[in-house]
Design goal:
The chain has 7 helices and 5 strands; from the N terminus they run βααβαααβαβαβ. The chain is an alpha/beta fold.
């Protein structure tokens, strides 16, 4: 009876990513509907729904949601962006080229997608449950995290430490920003 739960929502299919979510209305509708259905199923089916204290979207972001965050080559990135070129160029107001301005814009679009996903979760979960951003801290600097958590509908962060010795650093960032945080006890290969 004293247990509390964080529920990880996983509404995506293979190939879903933040660009498809933002630029393909049918994909956004399907993902948002699946998020609502997953939240509702948990809250309707669990014996004590008041013990569900938080929800999170996917895990270890940007992985699984950002299709090119690991790619370094401009040609690789352009290839991934190609299906969305027309919509991206309309949003940018210029031809698509990979430069620092475009990369910053793409990270902002990633954050915008997180705002929308977190808002969809919030709409179904209500205001009495936390929405936590489960980002890989190694991929996000503090201003990026602040953009997603402080300026968006997320309340805090899920801290999953992938490298030994980083726990205190991640906790410090959460505490300095006044964010609630949650973690798990795990022993991945880098922590054994």
């Amino acid at each position: 009876p004293r247990q509390r739960f964080l529920v990880r929502l996983w509404p995506r299919r293979g190939g879903d990513n933040f660009l498809k979510y933002l630029y393909t209305p049918a994909a956004k509708e399907r993902i948002d509907r699946t998020l609502r259905d997953q939240v509702r199923e948990v809250l309707d089916e669990i014996l004590r729904p008041d013990q569900v204290i938080a929800f999170t979207f996917l895990e270890e972001l940007p992985d699984r949601w950002h299709p090119f965050y690991r790619h370094k080559s401009d040609d690789e990135i352009l290839g991934i962006l190609e299906p969305y070129r027309e919509a991206i160029e309309k949003d940018l107001g210029r031809p698509l080229v990979i430069d620092d301005e475009t990369k910053a814009w793409l990270w902002e679009k990633f954050a915008e997608s997180m705002d929308r996903v977190h808002a969809a979760i919030r709409a179904e979960a209500g205001d009495d449950r936390l929405i936590l951003f489960w980002g890989r801290f190694d991929w996000f600097n503090v201003p990026m995290l602040q953009r997603i958590v402080k300026q968006g509908p997320a309340d805090g962060v899920f801290i999953y430490v992938l490298k030994p010795g980083r726990w205190q650093e991640h906790v410090r960032v959460a505490e300095e920003n006044g964010w609630p945080f949650f973690s798990q006890l795990s022993h991945n290969t880098g922590m054994k």
